[in-house]
Amino acid sequence: MTGHEGQLTDRFGFGRNWASYARFIGENEIAEAVKGLTKLVPPQALRGRSFLDIGSGSGLHALAAARLGVGRIVTVDVDPNSTATTRETMMRFSVSVPWVALERSVLDMSPETDGTFDVVYSWGVLHHTGDMIAAIERAAALVAPGGLLAMALYRRTRLDWFWVREKHWYINASPGRQRLARGLYTTALTIASVLTGRKPRMGRGMEYWHDLHDWMGGYPYESILADEVDALMQRLGLRKVRVFARPLELGLFGSGCDEYVYGR
Predict the structure, then answer these.
(1) Strands (E), the chain
(2) Residues 24, 79 share a domain
(3) Do residues 82 and 57 lie in contact, with contact meaning Cβ atoms separated by under 8 Å?
(4) 234-262 pLDDT, tens digit each
(5) 185 and 248 share a domain?
(6) How many domains does one find in the chain?
(7) How far apart are CA 159 and CA 69, in angstroms?
(8) Bridge partners of 153?
């Protein structure tokens, strides 16, 4: 593995997983994506604004932004399968807002070459680039004056060392061993949910099995805590708008994403 997202050879097939999931996208999924987006950025801050989606995946979040009336959309994803799926999703739902889907690494982007945007959005992506801090810095640089950076990043856990090793094993395992690993994880999660009374939920924006495949194979993998994000944002000249974060956890079943909105 190299430190550059666009050159990574030892990484999970995010784009293939998103392409497989995209057939499930319907009005219910779009409504949930709209709800998730407006939790971070209110509709009035989106209407008529330029919107950059870093790591577009299936195109669902860009589609949600279109439904909320943004002025134009640019999506970027380093995975060609994700870029193709984003285009298919935008065309399937007849998005009328001006949009373009580019195969591009955030680590190659800058205001000089790509301009700036009123809303820069990246949900669950920057921690998979192989250089999370540099990716956050690049994303922040693309925020226009008065604009917003909305991002979700994996929360650090005490078992991150294990999950890094698990993910590296998983992407090199045979499909049969991957299925076995998913089955063992699901069994353990189900038992834990019965004992605790908590309903198991992956919450990565797909249905359960695509979510689980994404979690178990999501390599490269980095994580961060809210105070570290805040220190970085202050250094980059951005102010906190809203944060949804939890403290350091054990991470027996993995991590979740904390959500951040900062303004320039």
Answers:
(1) 50-54, 72-77, 99-103, 117-123, 143-154, 239-244, 257-263
(2) yes
(3) yes
(4) 999 999 999 999 999 999 999 999 999 99
(5) no
(6) 2
(7) 41
(8) 258
